[in-house]
Amino acid sequence: MDFEAIEDQDGVRCAWNVLPSTRIEATRGIVPVSMLYTLLKERADYPPVMYEPVMCKAPCRAVLNPYCQIDVRGKLWICPFCLQRNQFPPHYKDIAQNNLPPELHPRFTTIEYGLSRRSPVPPVFMFVVDTCVEENELKALKDSLILALSLLPPTALVGLITFGTMVQLHELGHQDCPKSYVFRGAKDYNVKQIQEMLGIGAGVRNMPPGAQQQQQAGQFAPQQTYGADRFVQTVEQCEFTLTSILEQLQRDPWPVAGDKRPLRSTGAALAVAVGMMEAAFPNAGGRIMVFGGGPATQGPGMVVGPELREPMRSHHDIEKDGGRYYRKAAKFYEGLARRAAAAGHAVDLFTGCLDQIGLAEMKSLANWTGGHMVLADSFTTTIFRQSFQRVFGKDGDALRMGFNATLEVQTTKELKVCGLIGPGVSGGKKTAIVSDTEIGIGSTSAWRLAAVTPQTTVGVYFEVANQQSQALQPGSRGLVQLITTYQHSSGQTRLRVTTIARNWAEGSSPDVPASFDQEAAAVLMARIAVFKAEADEVAGVLHWVDRMLIRLCQKFGDFRRDDPASFRLAPNFSMYPHFMYYLRRSQFLQVFNSSPDETAFYRHCLFQEDTSNSLTMIQPPLMSYGFEGPPAPVLLDSVSMKPDVILLLDTYFYILIWHGETIAEWRNAGYHEKPEYENLKLLLEAPVEDAQGLLVDRMPVPRYVVCDQNRSQARFLVSKLNPSTSYNNVSQYGGGGEAVLTDDVNINSFISALKALVVKGGSS
């Protein structure tokens, strides 16, 4: 079975592609029945169809799909989920076996509908800018924001909030005399207070200037901005005014003593932004884009005091007592995230600071709303500038993003939904197909995702409800339908439907293990482990990962009892223990040498990305370039570090080019500049070209590191390698390679211990 071809067509990777027929057999399979689903997978050959979908009667509401039984004579179709008979609508009167609509063709298991319903408001972009930064930082940030205005569609709505000691909401309707509303940074403002202060809300109804013309042009439905048109206007109307405000923007004037941090009101600024957006643009697509140059030091959501002698909290502080401000700040930002997600607004977090700014407390803002999280050392860096520009990537004239999305799951009665792990919140839809077992965000069959991109991928988990296999007819299939409704950046509402079917099989059937997708399974289990690590101690999560791996190997391994040498795994299971080994060592579960902000960033990325990118994060690919042959993938192992090769490592978060000692000496001697050593020049250029190819479309932009053997930055490579050659052992792969100074267990010892536990029958 070609798992990648299925992913290209439907955006789906299933852990099991043949389903065990009973609940007990599914439980024995250890890895739950689950799938990774890329909601807006780009499919250039399948443009959206511009008509309304045909749906089953309430309460089912499943969409017509290729797995429905149809009666062309009686103009009827039978829903495979609830088995109700439905009449085709009148405009399907010409339906016949040789004249079927696209949604009934087998290759249209995924189809997107362009609905007649349009969004009442264009996408809204609210910039929330930190002014407590150095002059060069502020200038670089202002330049990026002014450039962003040229990347936005002319009809998009924009607004500006700046914050330092005070919070300022800028009016954009006055070109000659800029005005702003000032809020105290130390105070928490609720929605009602913001509505009363600004004169916005459901009691005030008006259209922003220019909306009438857009409406007549058929671009958007009548807009109600509830009095917010002074603060939020279309790009084409306010570009000059907003550019002028940004150009004249000054650093926060509040004096800062040498032993103090600036008074920064990040929490109050976010409260104003979320409150204004939910009052003026409820259930309309929008993004609140926060640019932070340091930690919040006053007011709601503060993460550290203003005294410089007070350090930022560490993982140890959080584990020990929650940190002085951690729990209160996290609770405050979770409240804002819940409100933003309910209103359909994403929150993006862009940082430009060498120190932590409080992403660990603020992570729910991005994780629950589908927002971006970008961790940069400065607003002057390429990482920030290019990542910010890629947010506004376009497909033709439309932005490559969707707004205010909902995902609904429908299943046949033999399957129940356990939950979702990904960038969303519960939609609160508890139906008969919802399981009592929760994995991730459970107790619902629908979720809200305030923003989605073509890369946004969620993990959906199920359980088999059948108690006895006799209830299933031979050849029957389990069906899952995923219905995504979202606002396209053009204002059109779109509905994407993916329907997949998987065969049932007896638990003892060889078809079940043969259908195992070890890559998807590793990523789905990694999501569960990291989700657990957000709430539980890491040691307990590592113990759970080990226990699940041992049980999986006992179930599907081939061995003689008490004989570790006899242990074998089928090829489609053989890499799974390796994935788990690297997951245990990864920055997702090992917080040593990572700040809480970095850990929050790494985990955020894992919850957003597809199978390929997630595996790159867990077990990075390593390419070797040498004179002996073309570039080739090599083991992620210390034996690969040889003096006469160049290595290219892609961890997703950084791309590293490592030069062996001999190669570095030749380069430093300038041999590559001499005509007779052109092969050395080509060897040095090859990994650089390949690295540029990896940098092209990744979001956020990874760090780019070039280093030499035995130099300080080589630690980025060494930390990722399996230490098969260390100071206290010799590699089984033969000579060569650099010794790694570590006490970490290498993969050979890990696999040997795993085999010993499996053949004993132990599970702990």
Short note summarizing the structure:
The chain is an alpha+beta fold.
Describe the structure.
It contains 21 helices and 31 strands. Strand 8 (124-130), helix 3 (135-151) and strand 9 (157-163) form a beta-alpha-beta unit. With 764 residues, it is an alpha+beta fold. The chain is globular and about 75 Å long. Helix content is 30%, strand content 23%. The strands form 7 sheets. Strands 8, 9, 10, 11, 12, 13, 14 and 15 form an 8-stranded mixed beta sheet that branches. Helix 10 packs parallel to helix 16 and helix 13 runs parallel beside helix 15.
What features would you highlight for this structure?
7-stranded mixed sheet; alpha+beta; about 30% helix; globular; 8-stranded mixed sheet
